[in-house]
Specification:
This protein is of the alpha/beta class. It folds into two domains: about 210 residues, Spore Coat Polysaccharide Biosynthesis Protein SpsA, Chain A, CATH 3.90.550; about 55 residues, no CATH class. Helix content is about 40%, strand content about 20%. It is built from eleven helices and nine strands. Strands 1, 2, 3, 4, 5, 6, 7, 8 and 9 form a nine-stranded mixed sheet that branches. It is globular. It starts with 7 loop residues before the first strand and ends in a 5-residue tail after the last helix. The relative contact order is 0.12.
Length: about 300
């Protein structure tokens, strides 16, 4: 049962997001009284602060200060905004109707729960629905297996994820060395700390997909994810067999994407240096295709 006065505290990072910010604020307004927000604005030159001010209640805050990017802005917000149950939503996304109450109830029912995730509805620039997504990650093994989980559409989408302040304090701030996949790196560290997770089978957020957002830089994001996986594998927290399998697959992945020391060398030469790549399904498929007779 939700205690009186409980709130979901959301950071809203923003820079010149006036085009969509009103819709974001309206979605938070529809979740009253179970939500409070903290707009962390990086000195926008548009009307963002004025739009947010129209919706601000006594517990909400608008902070306008220069930061070094979204990750830095979020760390600034989380350090100051307080709240027992926290998360963040970008200034072009929406919190689903009734989501805040659902989130608070789930945490109230399980005092040992650290992190909660749900489902996401994709929307376009005009707010029209483009479908739904339901991730499924429950272990450290899952979060690291980017090939069978993350890149096969079982991943988490950031606005659907919420957690306890106590977990944030235990895990630490977002890693500002990453610009596009800092949330993935953070979740890896969460599982390294042994967090307890739960999936709520309902839409908690609406993720807007448009040409101006950072997440359209898919190749750069993939490079960051590969780097994060490589670092995590060095921690020796997975079993030997699983670590070896992921290292092997990551090596071929880096070669295939042009980020390997042997890049530029013929595939057959690279394969002779790394024969264990033959255990990878994509490699076997590549070999099969190369042997197929012309015209078949």
């Amino acid at each position: 049962m939700i205690t009186e006065g409980s709130r979901l505290s959301l950071a809203v990072p923003n820079w010149n997001g006036a085009r969509y910010l009103e819709q974001t604020m309206l979605s938070l307004e529809r979740n009253r009284p179970y939500v409070r927000w903290w707009l962390q604005d990086s000195c926008s030159t548009d009307a963002s602060a004025q739009i947010a001010a129209r919706f601000a209640g006594p517990e909400d805050r608008i902070v306008v200060e220069k930061d070094s990017g979204q990750t830095n802005g979020l760390n600034r917000a989380f350090h100051k905004m307080g709240g027992e149950i926290v998360g963040f939503i970008n200034s072009d996304d929406l919190l689903a109707d009734g989501a805040a109450q659902t989130i608070l109830e789930a945490f109230a029912e399980d005092p040992e729960l650290d992190l909660l995730y749900g489902e996401v509805e994709w929307i376009d620039a005009e707010g029209r629905s483009e479908g739904f997504h339901a991730g499924n990650i429950s272990s450290y093994s899952d979060i690291l297996n980017i090939y069978e989980v993350w890149w096969k559409q079982k991943h988490w989408v950031q606005p659907e994820v919420f957690y306890r302040r106590s977990m944030w304090e235990r895990v630490g701030p977002f890693n500002e060395n990453y610009n596009l996949a800092f949330d993935y790196e953070y979740w890896v560290r969460c599982f390294q700390k042994g967090i307890k997770t739960k999936r709520v089978p309902r839409v908690l957020a609406k993720f807007r997909r448009h040409s101006e957002q950072k997440s359209t830089a898919s190749e750069k994001a993939a490079d960051e994810i590969r780097a994060i996986l490589g670092t995590a594998l060095d921690s020796d927290q997975l079993g030997v067999r699983e670590t070896f399998s992921l290292r092997n697959r990551l090596g071929y992945d880096c070669y295939h994407s042009g980020k390997h020391p042997l890049q530029g060398k013929p595939f057959w030469y690279a394969l002779s240096r790394y024969p264990l790549w033959l255990a990878i399904p994509e490699v076997r498929s590549r070999l099969s295709q190369s042997r197929r007779p012309l015209g078949s």
